[in-house]
Structure formats: C-alpha cells, structure tokens
Amino acid sequence: MLTESHTNPPRKDAQTDSGESSWTIREFADMFGVTPRTVRFYEDKGLLSPERTGQSRTFHRRDHARFERILRGKRLGFSLDDIRAVFDVLEGRISDAKELRRRRDNFQAVIDGLADRRRDVALLERDMTEIVSVIDDYLTQNSDDQTQDVSNLADRYQAAFKKHLIAQQGSI
C-alpha cells in the first residue's frame, strides 16, 4: 500500500508560484481515472485535504502520492479505516506506546496476510497459465474442425490438473 506508484506521473503543465505542480479536481480525477465525485468522497472521509480557495480545490504532489496509496489500499481490499490507521501512524497522530504496539501488531498481521495472498496469486497464475496452454493447444489442433467434441478439451485439462496436483503434493 505504501510502495512506488504505477500510475501516470503528475503532469507538469499546471504550477503554483513556487513551481510545484498542481491540479484542479477535474485534472486530478482524470489522472487516476476516477470521477471528481470520487475524489470529493475521499476528501469528505478525511483522507484527502487539498488546498481550498472558496469552493475551488487545488491538489499538489502530496495529494497525488496520498491518493495513490488510498487507491492501492482499496484495490487490495483494505477498508477506509485501515487506510486511515496507516496514515495516522505515518503522520505522527499516534504517540501512545500501547496504541502504537497494537497498530504495529495489526500491521504485522496484514504483512503476513499479504505474503499468503502473494503465494495464492502465484499458484493461481500458474494454474491459469496451464489452462491457457491447454486451450491454446486444443485450438491449434482443432482450428479447422470446430465441430469436434469439447469434452476432449475438458479431458485434457483434467489430465493437466491432476498432473499439477501430484506435483504440488510432492512439494508439500
């Protein structure tokens, strides 16, 4: 949730007097492929705090980095409270040692869960790659005869899946 971004870098066409990049709410939302309403939602929840001049909002690099983290956390299934808990620690709003230990333990549990998810994703990726390979082989062999029974494909997939399970049991 807190690593380098994979979104587009901030545009440099709008700058403040100090030379810092800045964006309107529409430009900011467009950079992330969301609506201005989505950006306002996160602002209402206290997760974003753009510069305000009357009704106008101006977003800066700090807002950009923060919103990347928010969206990454949401993609990974974190709640807004989870994301806020991380920001509270990062921004020094939590100084009580007991509360810091509690949050540290919670964060460690998240880290452990993410490691489990990475292993699950790797296994699923391998399984799906095998399925794609079986389908590709089937389509290559049967490109001219589309009336061939699809059960042949299912049989081949089951054979490949059993082979995978046997190999997996051997590594346990």
Written overview of the protein:
The protein is mainly alpha-helical and 172 residues long. It has two domains: 1-100, Multidrug-efflux Transporter Regulator, Chain: A, Domain 2 (Orthogonal Bundle), CATH 1.10.1660.10; 118-172, no CATH class. 63% of the residues lie in helices and 6% in strands. It is built from six helices and three strands, in the order βααββαααα. The chain has helices spanning 25-32, 36-44, 61-75, 80-90, 97-141, 151-170; strands at residues 22-23, 51-53, 56-60. Strands 1-3-2 form a three-stranded antiparallel beta sheet. Helix 1 packs across helix 2. The longest helix has 45 residues, at 97-141. It starts with 21 loop residues before the first strand and ends with a helix.
Q: What is the strand tally? A: 3
Q: Mean pLDDT across all residues, rounded?
A: 83
**CATH topology value of the largest domain:** Multidrug-efflux Transporter Regulator, Chain: A, Domain 2
Q: Globular, elongated, flat, extended or rod-shaped: what is the shape?
A: elongated
Q: What is the domain total for the residues?
A: 2
Distance between the termini: 31 Å
Helix/strand order, N-terminal first: EHHEEHHHH
Which CATH C-level class of the largest domain is it?
Mainly Alpha
Fraction of residues in helix? 55-70%
Poorly predicted segments: 1-13
Largest sheet: 3 strands, antiparallel
What is the CA-based Rg, rounded?
Answer: 24 Å
Helix tally?
6
